[in-house]
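Dear H.,

Thanks for agreeing to be a second pair of eyes. The structure we're designing against is below in token form, covering all 240 positions.
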């Protein structure tokens, strides 16, 4: 039985080194590109023949559009729709990163802290820029809500700063943990199938059930990641 952790090893596909720094094109980078390319291609194919009465194919991107726009209205408000492209792109990127990783011999870049953490930091910086643009210096009220006595500032400000900076951490750990655990389970049970030979029919059936469950988890985690991003965006736009 192969090591279930081998599937998470980042391997260079095109070795590149500049000034002693390794910037090789890896299997992780490949599936990041594939996630962006496949999601774009799928939307383009589904929308190539648009009509007032949507076809089943056209209903897929339109349903995703309506789904994300409703999330923004509910968690940010009508003014949040101007940031729809960023949130929609994030949702598709995470969703397809999760789903592509379920294919045999694929690589799940959403199971790595670096990849997801970078995306979460981008989301945090985006929220900071939006908050400062909207509130100017009033954005600093994020760390000292109105109505709090100044005498409590030495206590409240550090707590609020830790809470604020923990947002990308919470986004990252939740997604990475779920993707990692699910893929380890799939790999272990697949190893039993090979080891048991003919008697491996039961593990195969069980593995098929887990794959279906992992598809649901992949979409659910993309949804949760997007909802939390919308909530954090709402915090950046509105007062405490």
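And this is the sequence the design step returned. I haven't edited it by hand at all.
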């Amino acid at each position: 039985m192969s090591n279930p952790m081998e599937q998470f090893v980042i391997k260079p596909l095109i070795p590149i080194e500049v000034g002693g720094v390794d910037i090789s094109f890896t299997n992780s980078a490949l599936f990041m590109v594939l996630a962006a390319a496949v999601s774009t291609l799928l939307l383009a194919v589904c929308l190539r023949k648009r009509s007032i009465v949507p076809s089943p194919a056209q209903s897929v991107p339109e349903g995703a559009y309506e789904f994300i726009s409703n999330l923004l209205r509910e968690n940010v408000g009508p003014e949040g729709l101007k940031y729809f492209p960023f949130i929609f792109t994030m949702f598709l990127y995470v969703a397809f990163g999760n789903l592509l990783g379920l294919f045999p011999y694929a690589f799940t870049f959403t199971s790595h802290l670096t990849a997801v953490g970078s995306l979460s930091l981008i989301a945090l910086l985006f929220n900071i820029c939006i908050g400062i643009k909207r509130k100017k210096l009033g954005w600093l009220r994020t760390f000292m809500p109105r109505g709090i006595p100044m005498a409590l500032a030495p206590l409240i400000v550090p707590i609020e700063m830790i809470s604020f900076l923990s947002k990308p951490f919470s986004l990252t750990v939740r997604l990475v943990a779920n993707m990692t655990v699910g893929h380890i389970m799939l790999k272990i049970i697949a190893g039993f199938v090979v080891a048991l030979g003919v008697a491996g029919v039961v593990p195969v059936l069980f593995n098929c059930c887990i794959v279906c469950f992992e598809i649901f988890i992949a979409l659910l985690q993309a949804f949760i990641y997007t909802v939390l991003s919308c909530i954090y965006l709402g915090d950046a736009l509105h007062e405490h």
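Two observations from my side: The mean pLDDT is 85. The beta strands are 12-14, 17-18, 21-22, 25-26.

Warmly,
E.
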